[in-house]
Write a structure and sequence with these properties.
It is built from 7 helices and 5 strands. By secondary structure, it is an alpha/beta fold. It has a 5-stranded parallel sheet, with helices on both faces.
């Protein structure tokens, strides 16, 4: 089953991890469709019917983004607000278009994993900080598959780091 990767990154040209993830995904066009929200909607005006039609074609959907002020970038939040509508994504009689779809997050972080612990710098785990996503996906009756996270580890610019991260990402996606 082909997977839709919805990428949002406000500064993709400056990214290390996300650029490498995208390059790895694009090697497998029969397995992954990479949809760049920032490229498709540089003006921030989302074509809701087009996005809904795209999403309807896939059973596996991954939202890929950098952790941005302990959340997703603004365009992804806007996408969630505008695309996951009552009567389409949820609702008592209709609104079942997301039901049963496998959904996951792929998040790059500019801090070390230990920073995201109770005793760490940010006092909360990544799972705790992303709980609103989990609740959203539960609310629309999607099958939330968790997070693939790449924390900073002091090697963010090395080619070996990037290829290992991309390989782990592809393996995560294969398990959806």
């Amino acid at each position: 089953m082909k997977t839709l990767i919805i990428v949002t990154h406000p500064h993709l040209s400056e990214s290390v991890v996300n650029k490498h993830w995208i390059a790895a995904l694009e090697k497998y066009p029969t397995r992954f469709t990479v949809h760049h929200l920032d490229t498709v909607y540089p003006d921030g005006k989302i074509n809701v019917p087009a996005e809904q039609a795209l999403v309807e074609q896939y059973d596996n959907i991954v939202f890929q983004f950098p952790f941005y002020w302990f959340n997703c970038p603004p365009l992804l939040k806007q996408w969630l607000d505008e695309v996951l509508l009552y009567g389409w994504a949820y609702g008592s009689r209709s609104g079942k278009k997301m039901q049963g779809k496998k959904i996951a997050l792929a998040i790059s972080l500019g801090a070390e994993e230990g920073d995201y612990q109770k005793q760490g710098k940010f006092k909360y785990s990544l799972a705790e900080l992303t709980r609103p996503f989990e609740l959203t996906f539960e609310y629309i009756h999607a099958d939330y598959k968790g997070i693939f996270a790449q924390f900073a580890d002091g090697q963010v610019t090395s080619a070996s780091f990037d290829s290992r991260s991309a390989e782990r990402y592809i393996s995560f996606l294969d398990e959806l």
